[in-house]
Amino acid sequence: MKPNWRLAEDALSSIRVEGNERNEEVSLFGYADGLHCVGLGTDAAVFTYDPVPEVAYKVYTDHALYKKERERDVYLQLKGIPYFPAYYGEGSNYLAIGYEPGPTLLDCLLQGIPVPPVVISDVEDARRLVRERGLNPRDIHLKNVVVQNGRAKVIDVSEYMLEGDDRRWEHLMWAYQMFYPSMEGKKIPLWLINSVKSGYKKLDQANLNVEEYAQRISRLFSRFMK
Predict the structure, then answer these.
(1) Over the chain, what is the mean pLDDT?
(2) 14 φ, ψ to 5°?
(3) Could you give the CA distance from residue 68 to residue 95 in angstroms, rounded to a whole number?
(4) What does the UniProt keyword field contain (predicted)?
(5) Which of 99, 107, 138, 159 could form a disulfide linkage to 103, CB 3.0–4.6 angstroms apart?
């Protein structure tokens, strides 16, 4: 049964979401009882509302409203694929979609929550199904995959109409295969995760191949795990 997602309209009208020129996280102004911010991005903020806890409201800045229209169209094209939130409707500056609770992949690494291989397989299957709908599954990273009961949900589809392969997911799969087996269930500090990401992006500049870089990261992890 479709939830009555319009119940939050008055509460949402009390909130203003503003962006900035430095492409940093948005700023929030205002307050409404029962409304909770559960995520911040550079173009929008995501809220839940107590009377309809199964709905997430993605509220866009004025300058990003064109992205709301684009993301709405993506959700309509993805209808029926179980790896993505359900689409319920839209307001003047927001989308109403299914709220998907659970730790992100980043949360799992920071908190030592095991990530089973089926989560990676689920995302690969989701990407395949997205391509079959004529879209481009890009910008999938540690914060955009939620683990629910050992399975994956992908929660941000805002770039699926853009061209090009940013290879973010391919990079994550490589790191999962190379390093994760030795650190599964351990809490990994954020600085170490960022070091791996930063170093991988600099492979070309440093004239290193993947095998050499993997050896360096393995030594870094081995020192941390002692």
Answers:
(1) 89
(2) -90, -5
(3) 7
(4) Kinase, Serine/threonine-protein kinase, Transferase
(5) 107
Say yes or no: 118 and 207 in one domain: yes
Phi-psi region of 179 (alpha: psi -120 to 50; beta: other; left: phi over 0): alpha
Looking at 54, 75, 98, the residue that finishes a domain is 98
DSSP 142: T
Here the tokens at position 73 are 């169209």
Query: What is the pLDDT at residue 63?
Result: 92
Say if CB 104 and CB 144 are below 8 A apart.
yes
- C-alpha 198/C-alpha 167 separation (Å) is 14
12 Cβ neighbours under 8 A, 6+ residues apart: 32, 35, 47, 49, 57, 59, 91, 94
Question: 94-143 pLDDT, tens per residue?
Answer: 999 999 999 999 999 999 999 999 999 999 999 999 999 999 999 999 99
19/63 same-domain check = yes
Taking residue 150's Cβ as centre, other Cβ atoms within 10 Å add up to 11
Tell me how many degrees the CA angle 142-100-72 measures, rounded to the nearest 5. 90
